[in-house]
Write a structure and sequence with these properties.
Its EC number is 5.4.99.25. The chain has 301 residues and is of the alpha+beta class. Helices cover 22% and strands 36% of the residues. The chain folds into three domains: 85 residues, 2-Layer Sandwich (Pseudouridine synthase), CATH 3.30.2350.10; 142 residues, Pseudouridine synthase (2-Layer Sandwich), CATH 3.30.2350.10; 57 residues, Archaeosine Trna-guanine Transglycosylase, Chain: A, domain 4 (Roll), CATH 2.30.130.
Length: 301
């Protein structure tokens, strides 16, 4: 009798390589984990590297809730050139001498892009406009507008400013930056908007995501490492790291898994998604408080 392979339920924190789409990584993980049930909590552009959170088996149900959490990035913004894609993947559309841009001007431009802002996503992005992906409309040569969306940039810091010369001979400035932002924020749009504000154009030349919610780059593994040893964060640990934890007794556990809307302790009233655990420490369900009662979002127990 052959032993059946079972893949544990949980999260896999991948250090995505450059040149891979998020879908490529999911496809690779299906082979490594030997299961079709793999999904990701928010995409990462092909050029970018770093934290990509994948869910395996039952943990795929967590992904939609994890996708809404805060992200952190390290990147390089080149001032002095615009590109079609707002990053180094696209062809250059304009160049301007950026050597006269002062650090004070950079800091003032960054201050305008920090806090609660309205951002127009890049045209070459996966945003849907009337049901069609924006990048497809752009590829087909359509003229269209993407509405601005509210995003939060809680921190936008310049670590280093380097003088450089672009391939076409244009004097440019390379800014090494870190950004902490809400889900749905485009770092390449920040690069484009900073360049526009400074009058020289700008695009993103490198990007590394160092954190998604509580999951950091130091716990991420490359695809090669995962091929050698599949490291899965158990679903209970993953949920406890990401959401407020509500431990219930056996009776409440039974009622909650049967969909009964129990009264929630007041401390969880405005905490958003809450993870419920049984007396054995197993993840039972994700709930949110609606009129003081637990409304089930996803059941695991």
């Amino acid at each position: 009798m052959t032993q059946q392979h079972t893949t544990p339920d949980g999260l896999v924190i991948v250090d995505k390589p450059s040149g891979f789409t998020s879908h490529d990584v999911v496809a690779k993980m299906r082979g490594i984990a030997r299961t079709r049930r793999v999904g990701h909590a928010g995409t990462l552009d092909p050029m970018a590297t770093g934290v990509l959170v994948l869910g395996v088996e039952k943990a795929t149900k967590l992904l939609g809730y994890l996708a809404l959490t805060e992200k952190e990035y390290l990147g390089t913004i080149r001032l002095g050139q615009n590109t079609v894609t707002d990053d180094a993947e696209g062809e250059i559309t304009s160049s301007a001498d950026a050597s006269g841009v002062t650090r004070d001007a950079v800091d003032a431009g960054i201050a305008k892009l920090t806090g609660d802002i309205l951002q127009v996503p890049s045209k070459v992005s996966a945003i849907k406009i009337n049901g069609v992906r924006s990048y497809k409309r752009a590829r087909d040569g359509e003229d269209f507008e993407i509405p601005a969306r509210p995003v939060t940039v809680s921190s936008f810091t310049v670590y280093d400013v380097r003088d450089a010369v672009a391939e076409d001979g244009t004097p440019v400035l390379d800014l090494v930056v870190s950004v902490v932002c809400s889900s749905g924020t485009y770092i390449r749009a920040l690069a484009r908007d900073l360049g526009a504000d400074l009058g020289v154009g700008g695009h993103l030349t490198a990007l590394r995501r160092t954190r998604v919610g509580p999951y950091k780059i130091d716990s991420a593994r490359t695809l090669d490492q995962l091929q050698q040893e599949l490291t899965v964060m158990p679903i209970a640990d993953a949920a406890a790291a990401a959401f407020p934890r509500w431990d219930v007794d056996a009776k409440r556990a039974r009622l909650l898994t049967n969909g009964v809307r129990l009264e929630m302790p007041e401390e969880y009233a405005n905490r958003g998604t809450v993870a419920v655990f049984d007396p054995e420490g197993r993840l039972l369900t994700l709930v949110e408080a609606v009129k003081g009662k637990a409304k089930s979002l996803a059941v695991f127990g």
